[in-house]
Amino acid sequence: MAVLKDWRLVVSLVLAHILLYITFSDRDIFWYIYTAANLFFISIVIINEKIDDKQKTTSFIKYGLLSGLLLYILFWVGHLLLPVLPFSLEKQVASMYKWYSPQFSWHYIVLLLVFIPGEELFWRGFIQKRLSNYFNDLIAILVSASLYASIFIYSGKFMWVFAAFIAGLFWGALYAWKRSIPTLIISHLVFDLLLIILLPLN
């Protein structure tokens, strides 16, 4: 397949898995290594891709705010359904918050200024963008969302993998529609602020 000949894409994905394997290997180093991983993601994009920004400032702020709120509402509804599911997923959600929620001021800074831009630049602005050279938008969204979710396998928590896949589909579709990385960053920022800081689902 032609996509496998895209060595920048393949090597970047391999390195992403290595970094995330190390990231989740020890809770005490999570914030340090995931910060380094996202700085790596950002550098890969800056070197290899033009950053898409096809929306006016008022447009990307509007769509970013609304889409971030919409995704949080979807997760909130999903959280309400957890007690009726035949799996013990509520404990996984509680455990994720306990282990990986920001604890120190610098955690909040890197979450907002490094994690969020890094994930959107890399997974949508690089991985999905390159996949769209070989597949139609629907396939590119599905594959990039699956790849995004796959790095969270090392957390050992199915809920994190599933949540990343759903978020990846959502932001992938938003990227295919608007072709605007700033829109995605605002959307991800709003979502994380609500989910992790302002209105956590635990």
UniProtKB/TrEMBL annotation:
In terms of InterPro entries, this protein maps to: Rce1/LyrA-like_dom
Occurrences of domain CAAX prenyl protease 2/Lysostaphin resistance protein A-like (ranges): 104-193
Tell me yes or no: is Transcription among this UniProt entry's keywords: no
Kindly name one Pfam family recorded for this protein. Answer: Rce1-like
KW Transmembrane helix (keyword) present: yes
Q: Which residues cross the membrane?
A: 7-24, 30-48, 60-85, 105-122, 134-154, 160-177, 184-201
Q: Which residues form a coiled coil?
A: none
Q: Which UniProt keywords apply?
A: Membrane, Transmembrane, Transmembrane helix
Full protein name: Type II CAAX endopeptidase family protein
